[in-house]
């Protein structure tokens, strides 16, 4: 049922583009990281899941066959942009589904907006998808950093965690989540006593956690990449 709702919403916005191109196929592209840190969270499995969803939907819409193609962004913004643009320009793509990081998702969404095609973001959590880079062609099928920060911060500050220290992954998701969380901490009467950032993919957090411990903060916030959760 969930797949049917998702694909009905997506394809109803896309089929007119396919018809205008006089194409008998409604083609959807799944772009994500298949060789880097997010490969296990999405990768080829996301493309397989999309194909299964198409099968559940019946394999066609308004008499047109639904086809799923996929590609590896390598978790790099420039590669993601080149991949998605080439799909729209040469594959008559009607929609891109991005299951990678916020950075590659924002790149995909920007190109989809330029081409007036649909972007279904299922991996990027940055609030920018519904904020600074909101577009009528983009749908974010994921919780965003605003919602995540508000849910976690308000209850903890009200429970007594007044001072916070952040150990944050140095990329869009981490920095945006820290920013949103800091705003809610201040609103609730708490304070941020410090923060440290680590590179994406870091596995040794000992030095960062020692800094957090030395701060004396009531709470350590961890806006880190999902791949290490």
TrEMBL record:
It comes from Advenella kashmirensis (strain DSM 17095 / LMG 22695 / WT001) (Tetrathiobacter kashmirensis). Residues 26-221 form the Leucine-binding protein domain. Pfam families: Peripla_BP_6. This is ABC-type branched-chain amino acid transporter, periplasmic component. Residues 1-20 form the signal peptide. The keyword Signal applies. SUPFAM superfamilies: Periplasmic binding protein-like I. The keyword Signal applies. InterPro entries: BCAA_transport, Leu-bd, Peripla_BP_I. Belongs to the leucine-binding protein family. Keywords: Signal.
